[in-house]
Design a protein that fits this description.
Helix 3 crosses helix 5. Helix content is 80%, strand content 0%. The chain is mostly helical.
Length: 130
């Protein structure tokens, strides 16, 4: 009897262990029956991702670089008068159906269509002459 901690009697130890078992059982039942919202964590992650994307989109450096590239492409396309063709109007509708609705998308498409054959021919000539 002298070996029990904190001066507990055997009856007190039994009461303490049964009370702790009852508390653990109530806690387990509470955790099992509580209703959790699984979408709350997903919504929080989505909001964080949206905030990161918004910060990346509004950062000045990346936007300035994009404007410079599109500006160069727009200069080339306007010098070649590619935006005024009938083909450009049809492609504008096709690009809009594909989800590319901005005017920059049309400029990028026309620039690629005009310059890629020239670039491919230059690469092929370098390859054949080397």
């Amino acid at each position: 009897m002298d070996d029990l901690p904190l001066g507990l009697t055997p009856e007190g130890l039994i009461v303490l262990s049964s009370a702790s078992a009852a508390l653990i059982a109530v806690a387990a039942l509470w955790i099992g029956l509580i209703q959790r919202d699984p979408m709350a964590a997903k919504a929080r992650e989505l909001a964080e991702r949206r905030l990161k994307l918004k910060e990346a989109a509004t950062s000045g450096r990346a936007k300035g670089q994009k404007e410079n590239a599109v500006g160069f492409m727009r200069d080339v396309v306007s010098r070649l008068n590619l935006l005024r063709s009938k083909h450009a109007e049809g492609m504008s509708r096709k690009l809009a159906r594909a989800g590319w609705r901005s005017n920059d998308a049309m400029v990028a498409y026309l620039f690629a269509k005009a310059t890629l054959p020239i670039c491919a021919a230059a690469i092929m000539a370098i390859y054949l002459l080397a």
